[in-house]
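In response to reviewer comment 3 from the previous cycle, which asked for concrete evidence that the modeling workflow produces usable outputs, we include below a single protein chain processed end to end. The sequence was submitted unchanged, and the resulting structure tokens are shown without manual editing.
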Amino acid sequence: MEKSALTEHIKKTARSLGIVDIGAADAELWSTDPIVGKIIPECERPSSLMKGARSVIVIGIPADRAILATAPSSYYSEHYKTINTMLDQAAQRIAMELHICGHPAIFVSRDGYQGIEGLRRDPSSFFSHRHSAYLAGMGAFGVSGMLLTENNGPRMRYTSIITTAELDHGAPPKEQLCTRCMRCTKECPEGAVTSGTYPDEITDKKRCVEYSAVLRAKGCSPCGRCLFVCPVGKDIDDNLPSDDAIANIRRYTK
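The workflow returned the following structure tokens.
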């Protein structure tokens, strides 16, 4: 199948599985991009995870801002887990479709670590989906290190499929979406989000992880406040729950 036709076929497959956003990045960019090449070690690049990798497909599903308004809550926690499951299942299905089309492919699970305990030992993943999405041209980094998108701000969850297939690739965006309003830094209950410029300064992952551990004990991790308050995105005017409804939802996790 010709490159553009295969790209379109994979996009249609992804959308049939509930994927909202999809892009692809050239696997060589992990070595040449000035940001990603500096941040991501060799062992965490596509060529190390799969010999002969040419493309990384990135798929995304947004977190609903109306549900994020209640975070931290069991409501958002379940929403978060459901999206992760959908992403993993869709990524595996896309990898299988590539195999059927004659192109070896592997999907990388949404969370490449062993829960909060794993993050306590090492606050990183063996593969970064947000850097993949950046290289595919799906978003730009904000001051907090979160990936901001035009439609949903930072309220997107991603996973990736590495393949030997040649596809139509995107490119890292040149435009900045972050307004530097610093709402994410002010809203963070642990002061983990820095106000510096990424990648020179990044979120204090240790503080973020420890707060997630506290929330997990209450059944309402992750936090999600920095995602909700970010003003970037076309979803910013979504109809939100009332204050009484939010308080009622949160009473289960106090």
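The chain is about 40% helix and 10% strand. We consider this sufficient to address the reviewer's concern, and the full set will be provided in the supplementary archive.
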